[in-house]
Amino acid sequence: MRWRRLLTPVTYSCKLLGIHALAAFLPLELFRVYVVKICLIDETGAGDGALSVLASRWGLEHDENNLMALVLTPSHLELRKRDEPKLGGIFVDFVGGAMAHRRKFGGGRGEAVAKAVGIKGDYLPDVVDATAGLGRDAFVLASVGCRVRMLERNPVVAALLDDGLARGYADPEIGAWLQERLQLIHASSLTGLADITPRPQVVYLDPMFPHKQKSALVKKEMRVFQSLVGPDLDADGLLEPARLLATKRVVVKRPDYAPPLADVATTNAVVTKGHRFDIYSGTPE
């Protein structure tokens, strides 16, 4: 098996663990989880062993010398690049900040990702986001009414997503609909896409793609994130299983300078400044 994120400063090995509580409808064999070495830091001062519990749950092993750190703060879980402290930490926040602003004042159904998945009138497709990352596009789709299942195989990223979801589920304003529409599945897209039931109408793919050399100093969040996960070296292998799984369409987000995924061209796309959303047909039931 090839894993899609290989250039990374952490050490991986495959280990079969349990099923995420929100994904109990999937077969156990889908849930291959990394054992990851990363620096674990507890800044809560609670002394309740919460970080040890978290590490055990996600298969994380403390490495004091690792440049990447997963930090439990009094308010949230965040990822830091220890050799560049000025970059700060990144964490998943569906309640406040940029996501709250995007939910309240963004384009809603008019956003490019919403147009790309085919939202129209009463049609709100069921979506599998097979490369969830920090969950932003998945959240946008959920906020306009789609049911979204997020797949994320990197356990550090999955832990960040899970932490963000827990805080989102507890929020009195968005918690009810968020819990109904947005779920996390900790699984590899390459294996998981073959067995997901029920089949979604849309599979969404946003694989990591190297930035142009000129834009190497991209915004701090992306620098920290890419230091952990690296590029998706086997992303081309996602397109075929995604098209077999989706009953309507597959949407692939690409930088404007990137070739089509797996070099499979399509004339159907939603184009924005700097990106395009390539659209491929799925496989009807």
UniProtKB/TrEMBL annotation:
<feature type="binding site">
    <location>
        <begin position="136"/>
        <end position="137"/>
    </location>
    <ligand>
        <name>S-adenosyl-L-methionine</name>
    </ligand>
</feature>
<feature type="binding site">
    <location>
        <begin position="152"/>
        <end position="153"/>
    </location>
    <ligand>
        <name>S-adenosyl-L-methionine</name>
    </ligand>
</feature>
<dbReference type="Pfam" id="PF04445">
    <property type="entry name" value="SAM_MT"/>
</dbReference>
<feature type="binding site">
    <location>
        <position position="206"/>
    </location>
    <ligand>
        <name>S-adenosyl-L-methionine</name>
    </ligand>
</feature>
<keyword id="KW-0698">rRNA processing</keyword>
<dbReference type="GO" id="GO:0032259">
    <property type="term" value="P:methylation"/>
</dbReference>
<dbReference type="InterPro" id="IPR029063">
    <property type="entry name" value="SAM-dependent_MTases_sf"/>
</dbReference>
<comment type="function">
    <text>Specifically methylates the guanosine in position 1516 of 16S rRNA.</text>
</comment>
<dbReference type="GO" id="GO:0008168">
    <property type="term" value="F:methyltransferase activity"/>
</dbReference>
<keyword id="KW-0963">Cytoplasm</keyword>
<dbReference type="InterPro" id="IPR007536">
    <property type="entry name" value="16SrRNA_methylTrfase_J"/>
</dbReference>
<keyword id="KW-0808">Transferase</keyword>
<protein>
    <recommendedName>
        <fullName>Ribosomal RNA small subunit methyltransferase J</fullName>
        <ecNumber>2.1.1.242</ecNumber>
    </recommendedName>
</protein>
<feature type="binding site">
    <location>
        <begin position="188"/>
        <end position="189"/>
    </location>
    <ligand>
        <name>S-adenosyl-L-methionine</name>
    </ligand>
</feature>
<keyword id="KW-0489">Methyltransferase</keyword>
<comment type="similarity">
    <text>Belongs to the methyltransferase superfamily. RsmJ family.</text>
</comment>
<keyword id="KW-0949">S-adenosyl-L-methionine</keyword>
